[in-house]
């Protein structure tokens, strides 16, 4: 047996013997925090505001009975239940989309996928390691209903990945999904020709931005991909260093006059190093993130005093003081406005 297979069998044979304690602290509701910002901030571009965002927003809904989408090296082990169980354990982070909205999240990382051999040719799901239980159209309707109840809260939906969109069906699936979005949100969609501010969005009755990571020129309501910067590591010190370099030195094209995301999320290694995390009997990704998030939030506050900060995204957005901390960054912007 090869060393690689030996490692994989160690991986799939592991099961947790104890469950981690749940964080029972209540998270404050910020259902309408945008409408409560100081008037000075009502007329500045939205990409000059500090906006809480969620990374892998649908990770709470993963279906343990689905096939494994990623990592690639485990796809052939999809039929083994304990493998799917471990993938799910280390992929679940967020709470429901409604809880995220109520808590104050305004940017959503929505990763789209189509199941192979689905008898419905246009039915789509979300993914993060596994497929979700709930299909895309159902979740988007929930978001639309929430947006109608909170017309002064601006939502940014970033659609990406599009797993299972192959050459034979890609064009049809994109047409169907974009058509559904345009019909569903209708007059609530903010046009790409606009420089959106809170005031301009409120005056026009528009409060949804769709960011779509696939070229489309047919619809003025569909925005291009929003840059997402992250550390690609589990080490919080390295995450801080990489984001600081981007914000202070790299200065991406159009940085400062368009949306951009600073991702505080931790990322598991894609090689054998991941075993040092997944083989911990009483641990999971949510707990690791919970331990590192306070430090990352302190860094974010220090960094925001030096450079522009727009969307700040994390896993476990309803945990601790993440949302409150990001919203409070707007106090700095208010004094500068």
Automatic annotation (TrEMBL):
Single annotated GO MF: phosphoric diester hydrolase activity
Alphabetized PROSITE patterns for the sequence: PIPLC_X_DOMAIN
Stored SUPFAM superfamilies: PLC-like phosphodiesterases
Tree of life domain: Eukaryota
Family annotation (InterPro entries): PI-PLC_domain, PLC-like_Pdiesterase_TIM-brl, PLCXD1/2/3, PLipase_C_PInositol-sp_X_dom
Record CDD domains: PI-PLCXD1c (cd08616)
Pfam family, one: PI-PLC_X
Biological process annotations from GO: lipid metabolic process
PANTHER family in the record: PI-PLC X DOMAIN-CONTAINING PROTEIN 1, PTHR13593
Name recorded for this polypeptide: Phosphatidylinositol-specific phospholipase C X domain-containing protein
Organism: Cyclopterus lumpus (Lumpsucker)
């Amino acid at each position: 047996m090869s060393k690689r297979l030996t490692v994989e069998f160690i991986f799939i044979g592991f099961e947790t013997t104890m469950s981690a304690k749940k964080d029972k602290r209540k998270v404050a509701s910020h259902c309408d925090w945008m409408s409560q910002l100081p008037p000075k901030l009502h007329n500045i571009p939205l990409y000059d505001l500090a906006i809480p965002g969620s990374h892998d927003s649908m990770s709470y809904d993963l279906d343990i009975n689905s096939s494994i989408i990623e990592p690639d090296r485990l796809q052939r082990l999809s039929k083994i239940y304990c493998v799917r169980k471990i993938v799910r354990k280390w992929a679940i982070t967020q709470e429901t989309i409604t809880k995220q909205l109520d808590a104050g999240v305004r940017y959503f990382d929505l990763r789209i996928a189509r199941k192979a051999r689905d008898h419905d040719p246009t039915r789509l799901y979300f993914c993060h390691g596994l497929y979700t239980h709930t299909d895309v159209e159902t979740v988007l309707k929930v978001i639309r209903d929430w947006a109608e109840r909170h017309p002064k809260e601006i939502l940014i939906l970033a659609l990406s990945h599009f797993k299972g969109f192959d050459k034979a069906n890609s064009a049809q699936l994109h047409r169907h999904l974009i058509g559904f979005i345009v019909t569903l949100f209708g007059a609530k969609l903010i046009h790409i020709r606009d420089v959106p501010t809170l005031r301009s969005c409120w005056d026009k009755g528009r409060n949804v931005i769709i960011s779509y990571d696939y070229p489309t020129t047919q619809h003025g309501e569909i925005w291009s991909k929003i840059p997402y910067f992250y550390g690609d590591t589990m080490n919080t010190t390295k995450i801080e260093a990489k984001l600081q370099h981007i914000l202070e030195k790299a200065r991406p094209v159009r940085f400062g006059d368009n949306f951009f995301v600073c991702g505080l999320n931790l990322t598991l290694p894609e090689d054998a190093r991941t075993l040092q995390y997944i083989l911990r009997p009483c641990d999971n990704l949510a707990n690791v993130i919970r331990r590192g998030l306070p430090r990352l939030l302190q860094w974010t506050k220090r960094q925001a005093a030096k450079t522009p900060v727009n969307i700040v995204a994390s896993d476990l957005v309803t945990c601790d003081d993440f949302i409150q901390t990001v919203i409070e960054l707007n106090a700095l912007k208010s004094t500068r406005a």
